[in-house]
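Put briefly, the fold is written as integer tokens. One such record reads:
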Amino acid sequence: MAHGRACAARIRELAQRAGWPLVRTAAEIVACCQVTPLRAWRLAHGWPLEEAADRLDEVCARIGLRQPHLGKAGLSCYELGKHPVPMWLLDPLCRLYQTRPDWLGFGGDYSGGEPGERPLFPVLAGPGKGGEKGSTGDLLNRTDHQEDPMRRRELLRTALAGLALGSGLTPQAAHALELLRQDAEHTVRPPALEPTTLDEWEHIVEAHGYALKTTPPLSLLGELAADFAELQALAQRGLRLHDRKHVYYLSAQLAGLMGVTLLNLGEPRDAWRWFNTAQAAAEENGDRALRGWVLTRKAISGALPRIRYGADPVQTARLALRLTEQAQALTRNIPCAAHPMAHAVEASARSWLGDRPGALAAINRARDAFARLDAEETRASSFCYPEQQMRSHFSDSLTRLGLTREARREQQAALPLYSPNETLEPTIVRMDQAECLIKDGDVTEGCRSVIRVILDLPEERRAPTLWSHARRVAKSLPQEAQHTPAARDLREFLASSR
């Protein structure tokens, strides 16, 4: 049984009188108090949880990393082994406690140095006695014995060997048996996640939903991938059904954002794979609104953009129609963002097929469904459906159908609604405006507008998806305009981006 802080304080006082190095103090706390090395190092410094968490934030800020803001509860979960420590946090923890990863309990030291020069963590021997590699002290390291079943079996036999000689139940044996019992209990009845853990993840995912609108995709991709990897480490733990479904929900959202981001970077095949992953996670969760959102995103960001990269327009548009029909069936009678979006994306798919009556009917259904949404579902988040995004979808369909007057109305209504930080979507709307000029016969101004809207953007904001839109506009030029000076200028400008 773990001892209290008073025991650690007594060891710290003894260490100060005897002049022990910090590493020995931490080792003695592990041995006596039977706590994890991560907790022992904090206790060796004499810091309460709140202070250590604040100091960790300061370390991360000093070296240019995001601050984890763990607080008392979050750091305690890491110390107790309830949550795996993410890889990016190992270096800041080592800096904080002035130590190295294996002494904090992360992996082992296989450098071949002199054993006497380095206490081995975790340690189960009594004060003043160092553990040896492969000793029963290793049983404290859950990661080690869980990942290597044969090693675990060997260590259990070693820990219990003394019982056969009639020597009684040693502390090592008792601890080994307790770990065995805890493993079984975690399998049968996994521990519930702290409510704050899932709340924090909801805030992280929601922040990414807003960031997708305003952050250059290359900058966003790394953060999305790091958080997705951390969330999957959480998902791979034994979780109760409610927590597991919650993690599936968040995984579906993050995977969907990964798909959109990869598409914006001009990687449609990779984007499609991520949408498949998002769909699988959403189906495991079962929430109909979430499944509808993923299917609709898969259609508008995974299927239809393939046409710009050479896919067959008819087959691709029919695939998008199937996805939107599934989304509409799932979200029927649910006042969620996915429902009007599914109808708007259906209109886009029908416009690719040249189905003007079907596209216009889908636009009307999208308007009706949008009118039933509350304000929460129309926020400027990637998980919602703001008015400007709906109008941009209408602009896309109407422009393709050649209904330029109706398309201009949607463009003029959409553009003032975008925030100044949003660039990708409003730039696409401006390209629709340029295409409308071309369709109305003003080829020169239309071609110049395409060049202008791209040059107006900072270079880091010129995402590959914008160039693909511009190339589609160039390909839509009528045959008689292909050899005009403006058309040649546009082709040369687009060629310079390759």
Notes: The mean pLDDT is 83. Residues 266 and 383 are 22 Å apart (CA to CA).
